[in-house]
């Protein structure tokens, strides 16, 4: 993840190719309930930062200046109603998931949004762009209202896209280490891949 962007723009054709390719990612029941909202206009980007953060964070965060220069902001959106409607149809009705979002043990709309977002990040990398993913920690509805997103649609997260300026603020998270093999379990939880090598 890049934490400091230059102001160099993203080619609009490249942007549309990346977004279109990312929407080829899996979608449960072919519900197609994931959407992207791309913000490239400077006024829209300013509105995003004003609604998604507060002045205290913007004035103290070592990352804000680098983040705010990203020339493209993409909101990864998902619509739970697309899934409940799809799973109420005859071929899916036996699942019992066509009632309401609350009955879903695992909300597929967030899983699908995660897959589409990952595809977008990989597509950006493939096109030589830098990216950062930002979680939605506050003001979700205010952000969505600012861009006329209908009620019921959720903001999974935000992707910043552009070019690195080479001045990225180093994240302390990079100091966390755990062998990947210790997170792979074979046959039963606790039987790790590193134990079989």
Short description:
36% of the residues lie in helices and 14% in strands.
Helix-strand layout with pairing:
Elements: H1 12-22, E1 34-39, H2 42-52, H3 55-60, H4 64-68, E2 72-78, H5 80-86, H6 108-126, E3 130-135, H7 140-146, E4 154-162, H8 193-196
Antiparallel strand pairs: 1-2, 2-4, 3-4
Please describe the structure with a list of short key phrases separated by commas or semicolons.
alpha+beta; 8 helices; globular; 197 residues; NADH Oxidase; 36% helix
Task: Give an overview in words.
The chain is of the alpha+beta class. The chain has one domain (12-171): NADH Oxidase (3-Layer(aba) Sandwich). The protein has 8 helices and 4 strands, in the order αβαααβααβαβα. It has helices at residues 12-22, 42-52, 55-60, 64-68, 80-86, 108-126, 140-146, 193-196; strands at 34-39, 72-78, 130-135, 154-162. It has a 4-stranded antiparallel beta sheet, sandwiched between helices. The radius of gyration is 19 Å and the shape is globular. The mean pLDDT is 92.
């Amino acid at each position: 993840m890049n934490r400091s962007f230059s102001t160099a723009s993203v080619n609009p054709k490249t942007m549309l190719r990346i977004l279109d390719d990312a929407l080829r990612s899996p979608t449960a029941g072919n519900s197609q309930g994931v959407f992207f909202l791309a913000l490239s206009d400077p006024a829209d980007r300013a509105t995003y930062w004003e609604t998604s953060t507060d002045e205290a964070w913007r004035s103290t965060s070592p990352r804000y200046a680098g983040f705010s220069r990203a020339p493209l902001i993409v909101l990864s959106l998902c619509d739970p109603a697309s899934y409940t409607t799809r799973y109420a149809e005859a071929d899916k009705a036996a699942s019992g998931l066509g009632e309401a979002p609350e009955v879903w043990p695992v909300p597929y709309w967030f899983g699908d949004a995660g897959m589409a977002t990952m595809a977008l990040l990989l597509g950006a990398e493939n096109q030589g762009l830098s990216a950062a993913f930002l979680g939605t920690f506050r003001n979700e509805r205010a952000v969505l209202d600012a861009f006329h997103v209908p009620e019921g649609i959720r903001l999974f997260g935000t992707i910043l896209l552009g070019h690195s300026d080479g001045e990225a603020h180093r994240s302390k998270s990079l100091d966390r280490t755990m062998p990947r093999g210790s997170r792979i379990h074979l046959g039963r939880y606790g039987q790790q891949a590193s134990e079989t090598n």
